[in-house]
Amino acid sequence: MFKISCGGIHGFAEFNLPRGSEPADLVKWATVFGGLKGLEPKQAIHYITEHQCLWGEVRTHFLLKCLDNLIFNLDNCGNLPMSQEQVRAFLMEYAFTYYSF
Fold first, then answer.
1. Is the model's pTM score more than 0.90?
2. Measured between alpha carbons, how far is 101 from 30 in angstroms, rounded to an integer?
3. What is the sign of the dihedral through the CA atoms of 50, 60, 89 and 23?
4. Is residue 3's pLDDT more than 70?
5. How would DSSP label each residue in 41-73?
6. Contact 69, 41 (CB under 8 A)
7. 35, 45, 48, 93: which one has the fewest Cβ atoms less than 10 Å from its Cβ?
8. Res 51: pLDDT
């Protein structure tokens, strides 16, 4: 489960790593996403597509899926952000693994 936020609104995407391609260190594998911090959704799409060759199809696909969910929620949720407690509860309910950075 991956979460991305913008202005208190969140986007989520679930992904499964293909069998045999699991990274030895998931945190290290995910640190490349730190470059998304502070970007507007359109900037994030551009950043992701720029790095697609380096990150591979799996990371690129689920990031774009997550960003699509964020954009949908920004357009349709108005000012109904989830509290930190609600986000944490959601992630603990649905995520097999939960890392925060």
1. no
2. 9
3. negative
4. yes
5. HHHHHHHHHHTHHHHHHHHHHHHHHHHHHHHHH
6. no
7. 93
8. 94
